[in-house]
Amino acid sequence: MSSKDLILSRVRAALGQQASAEPVPRDYRSAGSLEPDVEMLVDRLVDYKAVVHREQDVAAVAARLQPGRLVVPPGIDRSWLPPGVTLAEDEFTADAVLTAATVAVAETGTIVLDGSPDQGHRRLSLLPDLHICVVRTDQVVASVPDALTRLDATRPLTWISGPSATSDIELNRVEGVHGPRNLHVVLLD
Amino acid sequence: MSTFLGMPATSPPGVGNLRGDEPFPKAARKALANSQLRRNLGHATGTIRRKSGAVISELPDWQELRAAGSALKAATMARLPELLEQLEEKVTAAGGVVHWAADAAEANRIVTGLVRATGQERVIKVKSMATQEIGLNEALEEAGIAAVETDLAELIVQLGHDKPSHILVPAIHRNRAEIREIFLREMPGVDPALTDDPATLAAAARRYLRETFLSTKVAVSGANFAVAETGTLAVLESEGNGRMCLTLPETLITVMGIEKLVPTWQDLEVFLQLLPRASTGERMNPYTSMWTGVTPGDGPQEFHLVLLDNGRTAVLADEVGRQALHCIRCSACLNVCPVYERTGGHAYGSVYPGPIGAVLSPQLTGVEDNASLPYASSLCGACFDACPVKIDIPSILVHLRNEVPHPRAEKAAMAAAAYTMDHPALYTRAQHAAKLSKHAKKLPPPLNGWTASRDLPEPPPETFRDWWAKR
Ligand code: SF4
Q1: Chain B contact for A17, CB < 8 A?
Q2: Candidates A4, A110, A178, partner chain B, best to mutate (most B CBs within 10 A)
Q3: How large is the angle between the packed helices B393-401 and B354-365, nearest 10 degrees?
Q4: What residues line ligand 1, using a CB cutoff of 6 Å?
Q5: Interface residue of A5, A10, A91, A157 to substitute, partner B, most B CBs within 10 Å
Q6: What is the dihedral sign for C-alpha B274, B280, B283, B289?
Q7: B387 Cα nearest atom in ligand 1
């Protein structure tokens, strides 16, 4: 008997002849039941130590942040690049990364990247110490259920809520471990 | 004999970390003598309870989410064979390879073999309860493969030659001064001027591990959730060490208990709201990674998923105890437990400490191998109230106490009873638990051991204190 057959037969024996489970009550706030609240997103991002820029000129924000060697995904909007910026060859040598996003969740202050051409492969937004992430207000949804309806499960997804942090020392949150220590969000209307 | 082969089985002895070296009361007594430990734990659990309470109160539908989470897990268990096969099919279709491990020894063998096949002698690890449970690091070490823990708390435990004592924060028993000392002593190349400022300690870990992340070609992870419908796996974390392990290496090996499934993509909407708020007390943890098989040009190009039984089917076979498999490892029940707060996690012997450990470990190993754990509780019920998936831990404890073989257990009962009787409020809760007990004529364990030789009146339908409170 293969281990697969063994485990499955054990599971069947363990379950026995039980009646099918109760239906799942979904009385929580479902997708579509709330209006996205951009102010709430800003509030929650700031609460978890992200810096929010509500300006339309991405290049100007990026220039002000003095990104050093900047790496960008292949499909980035070139108008977002500060004039004269030094572009890094790859994420291994970059000081900063500039990406777009797929969805932002107001209630949790979360931004989701899905590896699209304007967001790049996953390690691009992981290795540099500064992540500048551009979010359009029409990408903002109210809640986690809303976000899941907009995402494609088959893509590699990274949900980001503030800069890298840890609660491992006396259960206090401190920012800055292995991921980017600085997260700047540019919110485009 | 083939019918016996397919019967639910407990986790075999001799491998893994589900059994302690000594019974709980004995280990607990030692821990109780350590006042530094108690201060560290009291401080940390107090912090997390406050944070968690604050973010839970922001959600008007927390109780509805708990109800959905609980029902979803029950529905998943009822359809487990079908869902496991669906998961395998989806992961395989997306370029992953699925392995089935009946117990810890088989899982260790599979992972060791997979690492050997890559020719590598070092793996990086994301914190994973399943791999601690099976003793994977020890097995890899025997095979000459170094396993580097990358989670900060796990790193503190590993560098301190210590054992984890909490599900979420394995180094919760250490304060910042102790962590500084461990780093100064054990971390190669550490700045001798290191202070005990948490941000400075975190920065030291960042520097120390960076090169390892960039140069290691194999990673081993656990998983918080697996979606049967899509074959998607999810890891929730804070530091970014998870993202490093899940995206930088060429080969990724994920070890996951068979109970970690959810049926559909939509079902994640419940657990992604419950887990961070109950666990770290955050609206959302800093990073969640989700992946489905292999993505060309992005992340590991070889992906293995090891599905682990190791006693889970034995838990599933117990109609009362099986809800312990609904656990999403948030650790809320540890953080509210008056017994855990005094004894810490090491006293429980198993990698699963606290209230969930007291019901899960004895079921995974067979209750005779962890006979004192069902008594490691005052039955106060705080764990049940805190659990985001509404696992009725007190009822399982009472149920398991009835299954413990007697003589050894009686001593444990005495110890637990003595503890409870010192605390009138806990005694009140124990009386509530008396009504939960199937053996209603006796007081529930632990009190039944204490009163075994005395005559007891029938328990009234409501306790005296309940009755009095209503007047
Ligand atoms: S039993 Fe419930 S509260 Fe305890 S760790 Fe598991 S999910 Fe969390």
Answers
A1: no
A2: A178
A3: 40
A4: B 327-333, 356, 386-389, 391
A5: A10
A6: negative
A7: 3
Residue with tokens 């499960």, as numbered in its chain: A153
What SS3 string covers B144-194?
CCEEEECCHHHHHHHHCCCCCCCCCCCCCCCCHHHHHHHHHHHCCCCCCCC
Question: Which residue has 């899905």 as its token pair?
Answer: A114
Helix (H) or strand (E) holding A38: helix A38-47
Q: Which residue of B has its CA nearest to A163?
A: B286
The total of other beta-carbon atoms located within 10 Å of residue A183's CB is 25
Mean pLDDT of B421-433: 50
The phi and psi torsions of B283 (rounded to 5 degrees) equal -65, -35
Nearest chain A residue to B247, by CA: A123
ipTM, 2 dp: 0.97
Structure tokens at B306: 């090891």
- 3-state percent helix, strand, coil for chain B, nearest multiple of 5: 55, 10, 35
Phi-psi map region of B367: left, alpha, beta (phi>0 left; psi -120 to 50 alpha): alpha
In angstroms, the CA B468 to CA B431 distance is 14
CA distance B274 to B280: 11
DSSP B298: B
Q: In CATH, what number does B313-403 get?
A: 1.10.1060.10
Answer yes or no: are the C-beta atoms of B370 and B414 closer than 8 Å: no
Cross-chain residue pair B44–A171, CB shorter than 8 Å: yes
Q: How far apart are CA B370 and CA B23, in angstroms?
A: 8
Q: To the nearest whole angstrom, how far is the Cα of B461 from the nearest Cα of chain A?
A: 29
Give the position of tokens 């650790």.
B331
**In chain B, which residues fall in CATH 1.10.1060.10?**
313-403
Q: How far, CA to CA in Å, does B293 sit from each of B94, B230, B304?
A: 5, 10, 8
Query: Is the separation of the CB atoms in B115 and B253 below 8 Å?
Result: yes
H-assigned helices in A1-155 = 3-15, 38-47, 58-64, 144-150
**d(C-alpha B25, C-alpha B235), whole Å:** 35
The answer to whether the Cβ–Cβ distance between A170 and B47 falls below 8 Å is yes
Domains of chain A: 32-188 (3.40.50.10420)
For A64-89, write each residue's pLDDT tens digit.
999 999 999 999 999 999 999 999 99
- Report chain B residues whose CB lies below 8 A from the CB of A8: 81, 84-85
Taking only the tens place, the pLDDT of each residue in A120-172 is 999 999 999 999 999 999 999 999 999 999 999 999 999 999 988 888 888 77
Interacting residues of B128 by C-beta distance below 8 A, sequence separation 6+: B220, B221, B222, B255
Q: What is the CA(B460)–ligand 1 centre distance, in A?
A: 31
Q: What is the C-alpha separation between B234 and B222, in angstroms, rounded?
A: 9
The atom number, within ligand 1, closest to the CA of B393 reads 1
Inter-chain residue contact B156 with A165, CB threshold 8 Å = no
DSSP reduced 3-state for B295: strand
* pLDDT per residue as tens digits for the range B101-136: 999 999 999 999 999 999 999 999 998 999 999 999
A71's torsion region: left (phi>0), alpha (psi -120 to 50) or beta?
A: beta
